[in-house]
Amino acid sequence: MPTLTQPAPTAPMPIRHRTLAARENVSASFIVALVLHAAIIGGAVGWALISNFSHASWGENSSQSGSIAVTAVTAIPLPPKQRLNEDHVLTSDSPSIAPTPTKEKTEPPPKKDEVLIPEKATKPPKVAEKAAPTPPKHVEVTPPTPTKATTGDSSGVRIPEAVQQVKNGTASITVDDRSFGQRYAYYARIVDQKVSESWNTQQIFPGATTGMHAVVIFTINTDGTPSDPRIVIKSGSAAFDILAVRTIQRIDGFGPLPQPRPITVEFALDYKQP
Amino acid sequence: MDRITYPPTPSRTCFRFALLLFIAVVVSAPARAQDIFGEANKAPADRTRVAVANFKPSSGQTDAFRKTFDDTLFNDLSNAGIFDMVSKSIAPPVTPGSPAEMKLDQWSPAPVSAAMVAFGSLGVTAGKIAVSGYLFDVKNTQFPQVLVRQYNEDATDDSARQIAHRFADEIISRLGGGVSGIAETKIYYVHAAGGTKEIWEMDYDGANQHAITHLGQISLSPRVSPDNSRLAFTSLGTEGWKIKMYSLLLGRVVTFPSGGNTISPAWAPNGKEIAYSASTNGDYDIWISDINGSLARKVTNFKGPDMSPVYNPRTGGQIAWISGRTGLPQLYIMEADGSSVQRLTDTGYVSAPSWSPNGQFIAFGWNRKYGPGAPGGQDIYVMEIATKKWIQLTHDGGQCDFPSWSPDGRHIVYANSPDGRVNHMKIWTMLADGTDRHPLTGPGNDMPNWSWK
User: Chain-wide mean pLDDT for chain B?
Assistant: First the structure.
């Protein structure tokens, strides 16, 4: 069955009879084709030249042109140009012309008949020395002599006092027993440190204001455990007072007391907003 | 210069509100991140600066003992983590042997600037070491004496080390606010050699490593009793995994009957009960029995493995454990009777919890991104139970597992293998904030457990 892609064989064409006439025809039509091509190319180039003279070009920065004037730097979303040489920090696209080094002028050597005249040394003017002003004498204040007879009692003395700067505010410790603080200063330091650590500032409520001041008194037993914490100066906020008491209650112990008597400790909290 | 102010228009107010909302969201997000330890567990700003003078030889041949004693005492105080130690190279080259020879003005000026100085004398007479140790407060010139101790022991190198440990513990307890030191504590661990794994014991600083059990079996997860009299561990025998009980007083295994496979024992802090994980049908659950194995009762009843229980050492009333009831093993806590179960972790692969002595934290091994190709590895984490906030203690050091708290709550011992291989496991120690890490043993040691005191 014949298909479309394979047409049936036909009779051979009479080539020999048409050879000469065909050659003449080919050369003539080749010339015509050349002329036509040249005309088309020439027309295109000529049209381009003519039209270029009469129309405004794209991107022309003039008010008459139809395009929008843009600044390419801000419009193109590209990173700024890289430096040409990464090793040199100061390289730029348009390097400035380096200043030519000026030749140092050398003084001409002195002529043989010239004599060098030394410059006159000028003395600094004399200034009379001023006596330093004497500082005002410090008047020593003598404390009033006590009218009371001295006894072993020493009330009102708050020594030693250790103040620890904590995250917000200060916590200061006062051991009421004066001789204890002198003898066992290291223990007072430990008490101060542990109380300051125990004051958990994260629990401070949002309403706390700077300047809140509370004083707690507690007892340290001979085994080092704190007991009976109580507020003696209220801060005005019940929540803050509870927080101060909890600070003491949270402590397991300070270590055994170095003396056989319990001590009383005063603990002052000053709140400062962070 | 005057600032130009605009009257608030509705749209401007609206924009401001949106801006505030945005800032609030952005700022509060990092606040919820895991950074609590900066405040809750903040270290004291000024550590006490402590100097140690070399002890003075008083009588007899003391050179070898003094070297051991001086080194041990200095290392114990350095390892305590609460002192700023004066390096021996800048300490004055004096060896005061008694309070009369002590000149505090040698120790107070810079660069020594010591607040405390420990000194004393060491002598050997008639086969006994006699040590007099003093601790002086340098800043308190009127009453400098803080501590005086005298020790008298047999003249051996080990007793010189023990005396130094005891004197160091006295100093740490006195200056550390009543928390006793750990220089006399022990660490129990698994030592692998020749195809068997035995339970070994060492001092807290890695010295004096020696075997406890000689069973010729695979023994794992040692847990020492709170009174240091017994050691519970898991051993693989003919009946499968069984908890065994070793009496450290008798020096032999004592009976501990239990049904099924039993693993991962844990002592209650009162020393009267043991929690462990047991299974008869392949599903492990937490059981509690007394220390002789009787009165056993089941406290968890869920499908999925429940393992590695640990008691709250402060109260004894809660148990933390690892459960795989939702897939990968996660950390849970509950009351010791099995009620009020809470899940603490939500992702990854959790193992080996250890409850801190003050009951506030749990340390555990955690692989937060578990799976093939997941970033990170298994590291030691600490979680505050009240807030469920956690911090990561180890980073990029290979596989870390089996943390165990020291009894003072200032140190954590753990097992680390840099390449993840089991036979390269070493035991390391660090401060509980993750600093000051150093290894205690060579490779082939695993599963440390710090004694209770």
Answer: 87
